[in-house]
Amino acid sequence: MGKNLTSRAENYSKWYNDLIVKADLAEHSAVKGCMVIKPYGYAIWEKMQATLDKMFKDSGHVNAYFPLFIPKSFFSKEASHVKGFAKECAVVTHYRLKNSDDGKEIVVDESARLEEELIVRPTSETIIWNTYRNWIQSYRDLPILVNQWANVVRWEMRTRLFLRTAEFLWQEGHTAHAGREEAVSETLKMLNIYAEFAEKHMAMPVIKGVKTESERFAGALETYCIEALMQDGKALQAGTSHFLGQNFAKAFDVKFTNKEGVQDYVWATSWGVSTRLMGALVMSHSDDEGLVLPPKLAPIQVVIVPIYKTPEERQATLEAASKIKQELQSRSISVKTDERDTHTPGWKFAEYELKGVPVRIGIGPRDIQNQTIEVARRDTKEKSTYQVVDAALKIEHLLEQIQDNIYKKALSFRETKTFSADTYEEFKEMLKHGGFVLAHWDGDPGTEGKIKEETSATIRCIPYENRKEEGKCIYTGKPSAQRVLFAIAY
Amino acid sequence: MGKNLTSRAENYSKWYNDLIVKADLAEHSAVKGCMVIKPYGYAIWEKMQATLDKMFKDSGHVNAYFPLFIPKSFFSKEASHVKGFAKECAVVTHYRLKNSDDGKEIVVDESARLEEELIVRPTSETIIWNTYRNWIQSYRDLPILVNQWANVVRWEMRTRLFLRTAEFLWQEGHTAHAGREEAVSETLKMLNIYAEFAEKHMAMPVIKGVKTESERFAGALETYCIEALMQDGKALQAGTSHFLGQNFAKAFDVKFTNKEGVQDYVWATSWGVSTRLMGALVMSHSDDEGLVLPPKLAPIQVVIVPIYKTPEERQATLEAASKIKQELQSRSISVKTDERDTHTPGWKFAEYELKGVPVRIGIGPRDIQNQTIEVARRDTKEKSTYQVVDAALKIEHLLEQIQDNIYKKALSFRETKTFSADTYEEFKEMLKHGGFVLAHWDGDPGTEGKIKEETSATIRCIPYENRKEEGKCIYTGKPSAQRVLFAIAY
Question: What DSSP element (H or E) covers A316?
Fold first, then answer.
């Protein structure tokens, strides 16, 4: 296993890219801006999907599927929506290829031009609300609580694996409600589900809050978000939940008859998380030796490496491995035994470190004699010797401890990297070292824009669980009712 | 529930479309040729996906994800492949929209034209084999057993919900092997998995076989398939598994060093099933009252309808419903109680008939008194009275019986609709009544073409478990070694 990872200290960005590629999570494809998600990376994404999908269904949502393509005219119907997405749209203009006249190459058949261009969906509000118009007549048809797992395309010039790619995978929830309050409450419910997923499953602490106007989703009245802090001190938006008001209902003429028999426009929300979470997961926990995966999302939770020299030792260690594997599996723990004799135990140790397997078991001839196994945890790299007799139970607890420890470590990192600035000078100084900076802001988008221009920092959110505290804007000195959360972000 | 389904006898094609729409499976979208899969339809697809995914994983496959877009030049690399797909490709030519000069509409930004056009994948052999080139150096890197769940686009002018749509959902397996035999064996293994899924889960009998040259996948050496017979006597290709030889390895220069240290091209297979299976499922079992779903794929296996007049009766029946629901759920049976008081029991009965729920339970005041429930099965429409005390166990068995009965009914239908023709006149006469016709064919694609032209029948496959039987081609009288399976197909 030629690891040769660049260290985080040396070059964080290169460390990230190296790690994604070397740990077999993903790679750049031949199509500019698009990635290939490799089997190991996809297995983590599948675990994320399964967990989220269950959370969505347990909270009353159902899945459906809407078209990949959106007629261009649909975009024009919600003014701020098209403004937000027009600059990054992949456009389908033709529906046929043919041989060139000289027969030497394949060319676009100009006679097969579409009457109206189709946009590859960057998000599906427009096509979905156009569909909802036919699904909704009365309050009895509401709420509609639909989610879609899909690929979307936003043309990006500068891409980074998982964090920013032209095509990415995501889920997008699109709900329709009879009243404003119900819609707002759905928006917040989903924000809380995202936060719970991030913290309990990804072991990634997040700050819940609401976006300022300039950071809002194109077409939303309010955008709520969860924000996480990466190890380089940059913030990452990990999920968003939008209260769309009646904007899309008005744009697509979706009305319902309420209980009083009066017609009104339908209220909407949308919410999504994407394969970007894979990048967040990697950057939250991993180290210079490789990935550190929280047990709840690790495709392999425990790997067993047999250590032997002779064929007899091989047989004995494999037998012992098989027993412990069965015991772990009966506790619903996913286990792999690496039986390959083409690689040394040392090579394998390094490989599973790189791949972030939470617990590694070594079994050698002396262990067989002593009825023990050697247990190494990936997060702290501590090693212990366990008696075989109660090993499975102890490993089950160990996995819980690791999940917990990774979360606490990330939380403590965030706490040491969250600052309060009272002056603009302080603010700029703090930003140099990375992290979240809580500071007063006068509420003016102009001020926000200037701070961004001068420091690259943006307001990540107005934290949802915020202490009200009067103060003065660090930039203009104007009065402010609370601190907002600034950071330089991905 | 205003059913008003057209009957099958009256207009089979309209019956199918009505049913898909009225049972809330899918509908046409605003985008020509693309469908919306509605929550109830998507829930069935999710069950199909989950079952297939487990079968793939249990047989050693892993999932991954490759780009939606394929550079146009990739298509030209495998000659027969491009020939097969060029005429139905959605082509992305631009990556930006802008405001028109008069500011009144949104137009394609001509300055944002792609250097090379991108094709929305109709299938992913080319992008995947271009990727595999970097994954494979030696025999140690083989086999690669990868599957992808994805959307694909094949521009179709005449579309039908689920059966033929411009965009559809599917899975595509793409495997790479060190030897021909291993690849052939993988091709057949997957064919068998598809057949098992069709018969055991969809309750749809299939005939396994190999396609003739003219029906082969573009780029394959052999295409194996499963063919099912629909109730109107038309055949439907339900899944294909392709032995691709070294065609794509040669086109994309994918070589490996074998155990002897010699370089060779890699051997390939690909295999897929799609949302077309949803259409096959509907057309295999459903009747003039609505869907008939096999219990293994039914999102709701048992529905409970309480029957009451007074509030006291309502409470009592709901309590009884809740008890039986819990007992069924503890046996992993999915149950819904329809508590709505906005609809009559009769309306609900019709609705769940339309939606194909395998078992319906009615509980009224007299049932409460007698400690009984009324159980109606959807497939035969038989009703029985069960004692509450052992109802759950009996319903569990009933679901198995229904699964079995639906399969047997479809099998017996196919048997009565499978004919042997010895002359062309007989052949044409048999085709008039629909069904499979086994007949001798001289092996010449020209003959096959003429028969198709004159009768619309195609060779669905050369059945895999075929009795060798010498005879004479029904069209040319030339010698033939076995009968092949003809039908008019979807």
Answer: helix A311-329
Q: Are A136 and A254 within 8 A, CB to CB?
A: yes
Instruction: Report d(CA B132, CA B145) in Å as an integer.
Output: 11
Distance in Å, alpha carbon of B290 to nearest chain A alpha carbon? 21
Percent of chain A scored above 90 by pLDDT?
Answer: 92
Q: Encode chain B in three state secondary structure.
A: CCCCCCCCCCCHHHHHHHHHHHCCCEEECCCCCCEEECHHHHHHHHHHHHHHHHHHHHCCCEECECCCEEEHHHHHCCHHHHHHHHHHCCEEEECCEEECCCCCCEEECCCCEEEEEEEECCCCHHHHHHHHHHHCCEHHHCCEEEEEEEEEECCCCCCECCCECCEEEEEEEEEEECCHHHHHHHHHHHHHHHHHHHHHHCCCCCEEEECCHHHCCCCCCEEEEEEEECCCCCEEEEEEEEEEECHHHHHCCCEEECCCCCEEECEEEEEEEECHHHHHHHHHHCECCECCCCHHHCCCCEEEEECCCCHHHHHHHHHHHHHHHHHHHHCCCCEEECCCCCCCHHHHHHHHHHCCCCEEEEECHHHHHHCEEEEEECCCCCEEEEEHHHHHHHHHHHHHHHHHHHHHHHHHHHHHCEEECCCHHHHHHHHHCCCEEEEECCCCHHHHHHHHHHHCCEEEEEECCCCCCCEECCCCCCEECCEEEEECEC
Cα B248 from Cα B176, distance rounded (Å):
10
A37: closest chain B residue by CA: B65
Chain B residues with beta carbon closer than 8 angstroms to that of A89: 95-97
Q: Do B106 and A72 touch (CB under 8 A)?
A: yes
- Ordered by where they begin, the domains of chain B are 23-66+123-285 (3.30.930.10), 295-406 (3.40.50.800), 418-487 (3.30.110.30)
Provide the 8-state DSSP code for A152.
E
- The pTM assigned to this predicted structure is 0.97
Could you tell me the pLDDT band of residue A327, with boundaries at 50, 70 and 90? very high
| Residue A401: count of CB within 10 angstroms of its CB | 14
Measured in whole angstroms, the distance separating CA A47 from the mean position of its chain's CA atoms is 12
Say which DSSP state A199 is in.
Answer: I
B12-60 confidence digits (pLDDT tens) = 999 999 999 999 999 999 999 999 999 999 999 999 999 999 999 999 9
What secondary structure letter does DSSP report for A213?
G
CB pair distance less than 8 Å for B108 and A93? yes
Query: Least CB-CB distance to B92: which of A45, A46, A92?
Result: A92
Determine the Cα angle at B233 with ends B232 and B234, to 5°: 95
Indicate whether this complex's ipTM tops 0.90.
Answer: yes
| pLDDT of res. B3 | 62
